[in-house]
Amino acid sequence: MAKGRRADWKPGAAMGGGGLGGGQGDMMARVRKMQDDMKVTQAELENELINVTSAGGAITITISGHQRVQSISVDPSLVDPNDVGMLEDALVAAVNEAIIKSQEHASQRLESITGGMQLPGLM
Q1: What is the domain range of residue 72?
Q2: Which pairs from 96-103 meet CB under 8 Å and 24+ separation?
Q3: Would you say 87 and 78 are in contact if contact means Cβ atoms under 8 Å apart?
Q4: What are 38-83's pLDDT values in tens digits?
Q5: pTM of the model as a whole
Q6: Which of 12, 16, 81, 88 is most buried per CB count within 10 Å?
Q7: CATH code, 24
Q8: Using one digit for the tens of pLDDT, what is the confidence trace for 13-43?
């Protein structure tokens, strides 16, 4: 036995065995669970639909939690053949609003898993 060592000493024993430390093993398990939960939530977001109305209710957009536009509905009263530009502007604004709402929804869902931690590459 090495001079000055206790007979019952083992490498890593002071840190909970295995050299990982008592808290690190638990932390790794929590990280793996968080990763699994993130995968499930990401898959669920693909099928979660958000309905957003714009232009005073004249445009309705349905978008998924993955920011994929599923449908656009336009009230016929908004269609003026003499002012196509107004319709185009209204559609752009409505699509952008729908994307923002979808991103906010996804962020809230994922934040419930991460506890508000900012993890790179998740969004």
Answers
A1: 15-114
A2: 97/52, 97/54, 97/61, 98/50, 98/52, 98/54, 98/61, 98/63, 98/69, 99/63, 99/67, 101/50, 101/52, 101/63, 102/50, 102/63, 102/64, 102/65, 102/66, 102/67, 103/67
A3: yes
A4: 899 888 999 999 999 999 999 999 999 999 999 999 999 999 999 9
A5: 0.67
A6: 16
A7: 3.30.1310.10
A8: 554 444 445 577 888 888 888 889 989 988 8
